[in-house]
Amino acid sequence: MDKIEKKYSIDHVGRMLADRLESIDYNSIIANFGGMIFEDGLYRIFDNDMALRLGESILPNFEYLGQIRLFGCDWLGRLFGEFCNGNEVSVLLFSHHSMDVYKIPCDISTFHNDVLSDQASQGLEIELWKTWINSNRSRPLSAGECVSLKQYLFIGGELAMSNLDLSNIEVDWDIAMQMFRSVNGIDDGDPVYVIN
């Protein structure tokens, strides 16, 4: 059963962690809050099993030197991971819609305390989330669900209501990676046929 945290909004994730933990680091977050879902699935912290399973299947597809440990995802199935390379620590955002990786120059504590609250509206696409949840859902997303794009950005799709669909996060990532491998290297403008 999923742990659903209704007391704290996305703006207060960092405060909740600080209220309940002596130190905010990867291990303490996963051990104490793994499986927790915020605001009906807008943001989730993975339990240890999900973090390891997704990490083993997804991270080998991205070239990064250093240690990456996944810790959560947003409603669109984009993954957040802690990246450590020597003294450098940052948070990475992995997007399977575009197959891009974004580096957020902060540690996991600052990410939860500042970045989620200060930049959530833009970074988590909150307005689109509100529109989708209000028009399509009567229950929160479960830990294994995400809202996927029917047509990924890397093949010309748009981040729009008409392109959203409910999916299993692991299946969605698998399909996106297979599609990306099949179209990677095709020249811009070459036709790509999508089967609906």
Instruction: Give Rg in angstroms.
Output: 17 Å
| Number of H- or I-type helical stretches | 6
Class inferred from helices and paired strands: alpha+beta
Order of helices and strands: EHHEEHEEEEHHEEH
Nearest-integer average pLDDT:
84
Helix content: 25-40%
- Please provide the count of β strands: 9
Shape: globular
Major sheet: 7 strands, mixed
Q: What is the number of independent domains?
A: 1
Strand order of the largest sheet: 1-2-3-4-5-6-7
The unreliable regions are none
- The N- and C-terminal alpha carbons lie at a distance of 32 Å
Residue fraction in strands: 15-25%
Describe the overall structure.
The protein has 196 residues and is α+β, with helices and mostly antiparallel strands. Helices cover 35% and strands 24% of the residues. The protein has one domain (3-183). The protein contains 6 helices and 9 strands, in the order βααββαββββααββα. The strands form 2 sheets. A 7-stranded mixed β-sheet has the order 1-2-3-4-5-6-7. Strands 8-9 form a two-stranded antiparallel sheet. Helix 1 (13-20) runs antiparallel to helix 4 (108-123).
Give the SSE layout.
Blueprint: E1 3-5, H1 13-20, H2 26-33, E2 36-38, E3 43-45, H3 48-58, E4 67-74, E5 79-85, E6 88-95, E7 100-104, H4 108-123, H5 126-136, E8 145-149, E9 164-168, H6 169-183
Parallel strand pairs: 1-2
Antiparallel strand pairs: 2-3, 3-4, 4-5, 5-6, 6-7, 8-9
Kindly list the characteristics that best describe this protein.
196 residues, alpha+beta, two-stranded antiparallel ribbon
